[in-house]
């Protein structure tokens, strides 16, 4: 009786939430309206833009936006408020959010070699949106929670299995996620064809991704453990699909030279002006400060914070900009938070800069934390340096964190202050040469393997006169 009621109630949810998707021609589950979908994307877009930052090149931004809007207009959801952004991120990546928010990183742009390849990447991400993959995933999670809730109320014997069912969600939806990627590939090819781009170039994208995957970690994740199908396998699938497409390839666009002209001068790799490490010392040329973390801690520089984690991963130090007008105002805001216990608050100087420091403890969901915080006014910003761990182990880190906070100093080394990022420069060859000859004639601070990968050629490939080739210029900061 309980199982009959469960099936009836669950069926009601399924019936009300399924509709035929015009992009895929299949019934899809959606418990989220289009307006809700758009709002979800809009809110997440604010967070992504703030945390990763957008690349400051108006011409490149407009180029990507126009290309994206052209592809989106050829999709089954042309009336979405499509948004296309270039993120200031060196990783080779592209992704989509619900509601038509599409992102490509400057990192992936440096590895692509023509407009058709970019159209393939963006078309793939548009496919995720038109097929409502994110919406389906969210709806599936909601439905399972609803179903488990109904079942556990009606069927008490299900309660003992709830924890194990929940733990299996990742495995349950892994196959759907891999299918989503293959479906997005197919839709991307469709939109490329409708926009008159050569769909064969999508195989070049897969070859590039495969090369990057192999070069960045020594070995690939087994396909059955990955939500993204292996690029090598996707390349074969795409080749088979392209062979079945009704396309006159002689009339399609690749636009190699136009694309390369657009990315001429783009930053390659990480930007040292935003900060870099030499051992445990962090240098920030743009903001003109240096900071010494405890030796042996794992460090990371992100857009909104610089973070270090202790070797045992039980303590953290993070540097952020507080947004307050003074160190006193920032300290008052922090120390007057509800539930926080404060002691040893003092005003001081750190290498001539005004600082307020103090120790604290606070109850959290994870337990009681202990820590120390410093607020430093410097060059128009107020920096918050926060070190903490569980209260039980905090005494072991107190001196190291205090010493680290007091290491904040003005950066005066002119060599470091003047560092610049590496950039892509497009060279038009005056004669035939191999890539090795190109490297000798037009030196790059990256390896020959990397140069071959970003140009999508083999090291012994003969490059012809008049061909445009990527060179990396500048110095690699060590």
Strand content: 15-25%
Instruction: Report the count of strand segments.
Output: 21
Main beta sheet, described?
7 strands, antiparallel
Mean of pLDDT: 85
Note poorly predicted spans.
1-16, 142-176, 218-227
Structural class determined from secondary elements: alpha+beta
Helix content: 40-55%
Please work out how many helical segments DSSP would assign: 16
| Distance separating the two termini | 69 Å
Arrangement of strands in the largest sheet = 10-11-12-16-15-14-13
Rg from alpha-carbon coordinates: 27 Å
> Domains counted in the coordinates: how many?
3
Specify the overall morphology: globular
Notes on the structure:
The structure is a single chain. The protein has 478 residues and is an alpha+beta fold. It has three domains: 2-263, no CATH class; 272-414, Protein Transport Mog1p, Chain A; 421-473. 42% of the residues lie in helices and 23% in strands. It has 16 helices and 21 strands. It has helices spanning 2-17, 34-52, 58-73, 106-111, 115-130, 133-154, 162-167, 169-194, 201-215, 231-244, 256-263, 327-335, 398-405, 414-417, 435-441, 448-455; strands spanning 18-20, 27-29, 83-87, 94-97, 101-105, 267-268, 276-278, 281-284, 289-292, 298-301, 306-309, 315-321, 340-350, 353-364, 367-378, 381-390, 409-410, 422-428, 433-434, 462-463, 468-473. The strands form six sheets. Strands 10-11-12-16-15-14-13 form a seven-stranded antiparallel beta sheet. β8 (281-284) and β9 (289-292) form a beta hairpin. It starts with a helix and ends in a 5-residue tail after the last strand. Residues 1-16, 142-176 and 218-227 have low confidence and may be disordered.
